[in-house]
C-alpha cells in the first residue's frame, strides 16, 4: 500500500490559525516566542500546532525576525586545542537557545582578522572574537561595525561589547613562584605572538615576579604559539643557560619537550619546563606537563550568555568577566640541578663576610600546598616531594607517592609516568591484587588470558598526613585503601624518615604496616596467578632510565642474580647523561627493613625494584592482622663497587 503521508499536504500557518480561531499574525507571534500574546490564546495556538503536527519554517522565521539564529566565532588558530574547547563551550551553550555556530580561522594573521570578522558578521546575528591579534585601534574601529559582539581574552572599552579575560599576569606569577620555590633563578620565557594581549599579560606577570625576587634573571626568547615554534627554540633555550623554561602555551612547551628529548636532555633532571592553558594532553605528556589550568569551555559558555543577553536587549550593559587560573604542578618541573647551578657562574664571586655557623639539622619535612616537601636544612634544597596522588587517572590506581627524589647533588633518582609504564609513580606502595582489587594500575594478569585491562582499580586515600613535631625528619601518614567500588579494604600506617649519610649521600626510610581492619586479606601477584617471576607488589621504587645501569646485590653483579633473590639489599649503579658535565654517576641502594623477602627487580627493560609481598604464594592476612614491609634507600653521588655497597647496606641495617 502506498504511504498516504507522502501525498498529505504540508500544514501551514493558516491551518493553525483556523484551528485555533486566531489570526496568522497571532500564530506567528506565538511561534516566535513573543510575550505580547495572552497566555490562554498562546496555549490554544500551541495545542493546535501540536494536533496538526505543524513545523515552522526556519527560513520564514528568520525573515520574519530578521535573524538567522547563527553566531560567528573567529579564532586565531583552530588547531590550538584551547580555541577548540572555547568553541565547544560556545556551541553547547548556544544550542540551548536554538543557535548554531559558524567558525572562521584567521590563521594567526592580524591583518586579516578585521575583514574576516566583518564578512562573518554579515552572515550571522552576532560575533564572538577569540583572542584577536589586531592592534587596539583596529579593534576599537571594528566593534561598532559588528555589534552585537563579544570578545574573549582581550579587554575592550566598547559600551555594548562584553569581554571575558583570564588573569594571565597572576597565572605567570604562580608559575614563577613555583619555579623559584624549586631553587630556579635563571628562567627562559618563550614569548608568544607580539600582537597577542595574552603575551603582554604574561610579560606583566614576569615584571611582577622580578619585583618580588630581585635575584631572578629572565631571558626572553621570541618564539610563537605552536608546536613547531617550541621545537625550533631548543637550541636557544640550551644556549641561554636557563635552568627552567616558561613557555607561552602548552603547544610551545610540547614542541620544546620533543626537541629536548631528541637532544638527550632530561626534563626535569637537566631543565624544567612549564606551559600555560592545561590542554587535555598536558597531564598525559611524558613527563606530565606543569602548566596553568584555564577554564576553556567555561569561557565559551559564559561568552555566549553575555552575548545572548545583548542580542535580546540592545540596552543590556556590557560587562568584563574575569577568570582566575590555577597552577597544575606535574613532573616536568623539579629542583634546579646543582651541577647546572655551578655551571652558570662565569665570574668569581667576592668572598662574603663570615656568617654565624648554622646547626645542620639534616633533612626536614614541611607541609606545602598539595604536597609535603623534604628539604635539607643546610641549603633548603628539596630532596623529595610527597604527593597525595588524588588527581591520578583511575586506571592508574591513584595513591600517594614520592617524586621527584633527588641525590644531594640534585640528580633525580625516581621516575613518574614513564612512557614504558605510565602507571609507575616514583616510590609508592603498589600491589596488583588485594582481594581482587588492583592497587598497581594498568592491566591485571588473568590466568590463561594474560594481561587484561579490568575495571578493578582501587584508590589509596590519605586520611591524615603530618610531620612529627618532635622529629621533623619523620613524616607519618595514615592511608585508607578503597576497592574499585569505593568500599574500605584495609588501612595503612606509613612512616617516612630521612638522614644525611655524609657529603655525597643521604638515606630515605619507608616503613609500611598494612592492617586488615575491614576483614581478611588475600594479597596476590601475577606470579601467584600463573605468571612465573612476576611477583611484584609492595613498596616499589621506579628509577629513571640512564645511559648505563649496573645491578649489585649480596649475590653478586647482574639483574639475573638479584631478581627473585632474598638478598638483604640491591643497588642500581647508574651513569646519567648531562649536557654540562656529560656523566653523573650515582648509586641507589635499597635495603630491606623487615625479614628478607624476594626482590622483584628490573634493569634491562627499566630500572625498578621492591621487596615482594606475594612472590610465589598468596599472602593471607586474617581479619585484624597486620603485615609489615619497607625499605631503606641510600642515594649516593658516586658509583659504589660491590664491597662498598655491601658495607653501606650493613651500616643502614
UniProtKB/TrEMBL annotation:
<dbReference type="Pfam" id="PF13377">
    <property type="entry name" value="Peripla_BP_3"/>
</dbReference>
<dbReference type="InterPro" id="IPR028082">
    <property type="entry name" value="Peripla_BP_I"/>
</dbReference>
<dbReference type="InterPro" id="IPR046335">
    <property type="entry name" value="LacI/GalR-like_sensor"/>
</dbReference>
<keyword id="KW-0238">DNA-binding</keyword>
<dbReference type="InterPro" id="IPR029475">
    <property type="entry name" value="DUF6807"/>
</dbReference>
<dbReference type="InterPro" id="IPR000843">
    <property type="entry name" value="HTH_LacI"/>
</dbReference>
<feature type="domain" description="HTH lacI-type">
    <location>
        <begin position="11"/>
        <end position="65"/>
    </location>
</feature>
<keyword id="KW-0804">Transcription</keyword>
<keyword id="KW-0805">Transcription regulation</keyword>
<dbReference type="InterPro" id="IPR010982">
    <property type="entry name" value="Lambda_DNA-bd_dom_sf"/>
</dbReference>
<dbReference type="Pfam" id="PF14100">
    <property type="entry name" value="DUF6807"/>
</dbReference>
<dbReference type="Pfam" id="PF00356">
    <property type="entry name" value="LacI"/>
</dbReference>
<protein>
    <submittedName>
        <fullName>PmoA family protein</fullName>
    </submittedName>
</protein>
Amino acid at each position: 500500500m502506498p504511504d498516504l503521508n507522502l501525498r498529505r499536504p504540508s500544514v501551514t500557518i493558516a491551518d493553525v490559525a483556523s484551528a485555533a480561531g486566531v489570526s496568522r499574525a497571532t500564530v506567528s507571534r506565538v511561534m516566535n516566542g513573543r510575550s505580547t500574546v495572552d497566555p490562554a490564546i498562546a496555549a490554544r495556538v500551541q495545542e493546535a500546532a501540536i494536533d496538526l503536527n505543524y513545523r515552522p519554517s526556519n527560513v520564514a522565521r528568520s525573515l520574519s525576525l530578521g535573524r538567522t539564529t547563527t553566531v560567528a566565532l573567529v579564532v586565531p588558530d583552530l588547531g590550538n586545542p584551547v580555541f577548540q574547547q572555547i568553541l565547544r563551550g560556545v556551541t553547547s551553550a548556544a544550542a540551548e537557545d536554538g543557535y548554531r555556530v559558524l567558525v572562521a580561522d584567521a590563521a594567526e594573521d592580524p591583518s586579516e582578522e578585521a575583514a574576516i570578522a566583518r564578512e562573518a558578521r554579515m552572515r550571522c546575528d552576532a560575533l564572538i572574537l577569540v583572542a584577536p591579534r589586531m592592534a587596539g585601534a583596529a579593534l576599537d574601529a571594528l566593534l561598532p561595525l559588528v555589534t552585537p559582539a563579544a570578545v574573549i581574552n582581550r579587554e575592550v572599552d566598547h559600551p555594548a561589547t562584553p569581554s571575558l579575560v583570564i588573569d594571565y599576569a597572576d597565572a605567570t606569577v604562580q608559575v614563577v613562584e613555583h619555579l623559584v620555590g624549586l631553587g630556579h633563578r635563571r628562567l627562559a620565557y618563550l614569548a608568544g605572538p607580539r600582537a597577542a594581549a595574552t603575551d603582554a599579560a604574561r610579560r606583566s606577570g614576569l615584571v611582577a615576579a622580578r619585583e618580588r625576587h630581585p635575584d631572578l634573571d629572565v631571558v626572553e626568547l621570541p618564539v610563537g604559539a605552536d608546536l613547531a615554534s617550541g621545537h625550533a627554540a631548543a637550541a636557544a633555550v640550551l644556549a641561554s643557560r636557563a635552568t627552567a623554561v616558561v613557555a607561552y602555551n602548552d603547544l610551545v612547551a610540547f614542541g620544546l619537550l620533543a626537541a629536548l628529548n631528541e637532544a638527550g636532555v632530561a626534563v626535569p633532571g637537566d631543565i624544567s619546563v612549564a606551559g600555560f592553558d592545561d590542554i587535555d594532553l598536558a597531564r598525559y605528556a611524558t613527563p606530565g606537563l606543569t602548566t596553568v589550568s584555564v577554564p576553556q569551555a567555561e569561557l565559551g559558555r559564559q561568552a555566549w550568555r553575555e552575548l545572548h543577553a545583548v542580542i535580546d536587549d540592545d540596552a543590556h550593559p556590557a560587562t568584563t568577566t574575569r577568570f582566575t587560573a590555577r597552577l597544575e604542578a606535574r613532573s616536568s618541573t623539579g629542583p634546579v640541578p646543582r651541577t647546572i647551578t655551578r655551571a652558570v657562574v662565569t665570574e668569581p664571586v667576592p668572598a662574603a663576610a663570615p656568617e654565624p655557623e648554622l646547626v645542620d639539622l639534616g633533612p626536614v619535612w614541611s607541609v606545602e600546598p598539595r604536597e609535603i616537601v623534604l628539604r635539607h636544612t643546610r641549603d633548603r634544597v628539596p630532596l623529595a616531594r610527597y604527593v597525595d596522588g588524588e588527581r591520578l587517572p583511575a586506571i592508574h590506581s591513584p595513591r600517594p607517592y614520592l617524586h621527584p627524589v633527588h641525590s644531594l647533588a640534585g640528580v633525580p633518582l625516581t621516575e613518574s609516568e614513564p612512557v614504558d609504564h605510565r602507571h609507575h609513580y616514583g616510590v609508592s606502595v603498589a600491589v596488583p591484587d588485594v582481594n581482587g582489587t588492583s592497587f598497581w594500575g594498568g592491566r591485571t594478569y588473568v590466568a590463561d588470558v594474560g594481561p587484561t585491562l579490568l575495571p578493578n582499580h582501587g584508590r589509596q586515600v590519605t586520611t591524615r598526613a603530618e610531620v612529627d613535631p618532635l622529629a621533623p625528619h619523620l613524616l607519618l601518614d595514615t592511608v585508607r585503601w578503597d576497592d574499585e567500588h569505593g568500599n574500605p579494604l584495609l588501612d595503612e600506617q606509613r612512616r617516612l624518615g630521612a638522614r644525611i649519610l655524609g657529603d655525597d649521600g643521604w638515606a630515605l626510610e619507608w616503613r609500611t604496616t598494612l592492617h586488615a581492619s575491614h576483614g581478611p586479606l588475600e594479597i596476590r601477584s601475577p606470579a601467584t596467578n600463573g605468571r612465573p617471576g612476576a611477583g611484584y607488589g609492595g613498596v616499589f621504587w621506579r628509577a629513571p632510565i640512564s645511559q648505563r645501569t649496573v645491578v649489585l646485590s649480596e649475590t653478586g653483579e647482574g639483574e639475573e642474580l638479584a631478581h627473585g633473590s632474598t638478598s638483604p639489599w640491591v643497588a642500581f649503579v647508574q651513569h646519567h647523561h648531562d649536557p654540562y658535565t656529560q656523566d653523573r654517576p650515582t648509586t641507589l641502594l635499597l635495603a630491606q627493613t623487615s625479614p628478607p623477602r624476594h626482590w622483584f627487580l628490573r634493569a634491562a627493560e627499566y630500572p625498578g625494584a621492591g621487596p615482594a609481598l606475594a612472590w610465589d604464594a598468596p599472602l593471607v592476612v586474617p581479619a585484624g592482622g597486620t603485615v609489615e614491609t619497607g625499605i631503606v634507600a641510600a642515594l649516593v653521588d658516586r658509583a659504589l663497587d660491590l664491597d662498598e655497597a655491601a658495607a653501606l647496606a650493613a651500616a643502614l641495617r
